User: What shape does this take?
Amino acid sequence: MLTTIKCKYCGKELEISDALQHEIQEEAVKNAKKEAQKEVEQEKARSSQLLKQLAGLTDQIRLLQRHDEERELEMKKQLAREEGKIKEELAKQFSEAHSLKDQEKEKVINDLKKALEAAQRKAEQGSQQTQGEVLELELEGLLKKEFPDDEIKEVKKGQRGADVVQTVIDKRGQTCGLILWESKNAQWQDSWLAKLREDQRQAKAHLAVLVATNHPKEIGLFKYVSNVWVVDRQAVLSLAMVLRFNLVNINYERRMNVGKNEKMEVLWQYVTGTEFPHRIEAIVESFTNLQTDIEKEKRFFSIKWARQEKELRKIMDSTHGIYGELQAVSGRELQTIKQLEEPKD
Assistant: This one.
């Protein structure tokens, strides 16, 4: 009777009871392994399914995040656009407001500039007018002082004519002629000559003189231009003396030759010719040069006398100092010098 059996699982000879038990155990193990393998496979399948679901959820989350980011970005862009519009609108309003203010400021500035320019023009005109009046008064005062026998009349403002009319009167009280004086302290204008000639005709003056501070350089101290004497301010007195002298002489000759029309015609041609102005120029030049030399000599001797007086004062002061010191040392026993005892002026 067999008591052993070969195990179909391991091939060992086992007792029947052990073999059965072993077989049952092996079968259980095998089944357990299958179950475990099945569970493992199922777990793997579940894990794979979960991983797939997780991946899907991750993709959805990422998609949602991307959508959120896109929406946020779009919102930011929209906000930026709205902010830009608001800023643009505010800037426009600010610009318009400031544009009005700038226009107001510009208008005020332009108005002030115009007012300033008008004030400057008025001031310049007033200054020129004042300077002209000063020159006119100076001319009138100089003529009155130098020629007290003549009648010097100022032409009133608003009246047509020159500035001063000089009626030359000689020592015998005879009227010798008229000199018309016009003074200008402004930029030179050639039209002055034509106006002065017209004034001369209206006043029936024998001579017309234009005193100009800004005359052309070629005129020099004085020059006969277009039947008008143009003279610099510093040569007024010299020219006035010569013109007056000639008018007195011409009047004397005219009175001495009353009824002698031929000589008067010759005299008139002489006065209105070219030789007469040249002779006057020569006389005035000589007079002016002589006057200049006299002034130079006066200034030279004044300086010399002042310098000599100063040195003399130094000598006198030193002499008084020595005399006083000697008196102090000698106890005033030194013989008195009367001139040094007298008080100094």
Notes: The radius of gyration is 64 Å.
